[in-house]
Design brief:
The chain has about 300 residues and is mainly α. It has 14 helices and no strands. Helix 1 runs antiparallel to helix 5. The protein is globular, with a radius of gyration of 18 Å.
């Protein structure tokens, strides 16, 4: 449990630094978007290339990851239905809300959870692959299509696949699959750039909290509470039921359920900020699930661990 607390403390500490940055007017207003843009177009692609190029792509078909991915798709679909019935939202906002409900923080929270609770960091690496190679292209394609591209979803999908995040992910997977050696002269600067990705996103996130309280009226609170509830409550429950139904072992059930309870990834906020769609609602959902997931993960560890 200490590892989970350390992971949460790390994230909240950098977010707090971002808030102080705005409080003392080091960065003001839309200046924070520079951090988002550098993270989105440069640092995050470098991070994903270095992580995926060193991963084992063979574990992408792990039954635990397949079950967790199925749970994510189901809760995302539930959000879409809720959005259609209860709080009308445009396509981009609905897409980002559904992504908040199912896209888990597999990196800076998933890794300490995997190491200190599940006992093996390899449990979250396949989920990172699935999210980056399957979920992210679909989300980015939809966000590209609402930018005014009138030539159809397939063209938008092509543009999304040329997105630096997707290019970095695919390139990293190709290196992992083929075993191509990457010279240290290339990998070293990529490692350095990649190390800056998460801090920049978290700093921008903290800066955005200054001057606007979370969960204010008129900011889409119904969607925020729905996405947050689906993420930290329904997704672990659905994943647990699927894991039992397909006959996973008790330890695999524990692993899948714990992974499903991770909060919404900060990457989703980065997408919202970059495309300037549902930014406040996405920020509030990331913020809320980051706090709410801690007692849920602790309860799962107590009941199933």
């Amino acid at each position: 449990m200490l590892g989970v607390l350390q992971g949460f403390a790390l994230i909240l500490g950098v977010i707090g630094a971002g808030y102080l940055t705005a409080l003392f007017k080091v960065v003001q207003g839309d200046q924070r978007r520079v951090l988002n843009n550098v993270a989105f177009y440069i640092a995050t692609p470098a991070l994903l290339f270095t992580v995926l190029s060193r991963s084992d792509p063979g574990v992408i078909l792990s039954p635990v990851i397949l079950v967790t991915s199925a749970g994510a798709v189901i809760v995302a679909a539930v959000f879409v239905i809720a959005s259609r019935l209860w709080f009308k939202r445009d396509l981009a906002s609905t897409t980002l809300g559904a992504t908040c409900a199912g896209y888990v923080n597999a990196n800076n929270l998933g890794l300490p959870v995997a190491v200190y609770i599940l006992g093996d960091a390899a449990y979250v690496a396949p989920l990172m692959l699935v999210q980056l190679l399957f979920f992210a292209p679909a989300v980015l394609a939809i966000l590209e299509s609402v930018r005014g591209n009138q030539r159809g979803f397939l063209v938008a999908l092509g543009r999304a696949l040329s997105n630096p995040i997707i290019v970095g992910s695919i390139a990293g997977l190709v290196v992992a699959l083929t075993g191509l050696p990457v010279p240290q002269l290339v990998m070293a600067p990529l490692d350095m750039l990649g190390a800056a990705a998460i801090p920049m996103v978290l700093l921008s996130f903290g800066i955005s909290l200054r001057g606007q309280r979370a969960l204010q009226p008129g900011t889409g609170r119904a969607a925020v509470f729905t996405a947050s509830g689906l993420k930290v409550l329904l997704m672990p429950l659905v994943t647990w039921l699927i894991a039992i139904a397909v006959g996973l072992s008790s330890h695999e059930i524990f692993v899948a359920t714990t992974i499903a309870a991770l909060p919404t990834a900060q990457n989703v906020y980065n997408y919202a900020a970059t495309y300037r769609r549902a930014e406040t609602a996405t920020r509030d959902t990331v913020f809320l699930t980051t706090f709410a997931s801690l007692p849920v993960i602790a309860l799962i560890a107590w009941l199933l661990g």
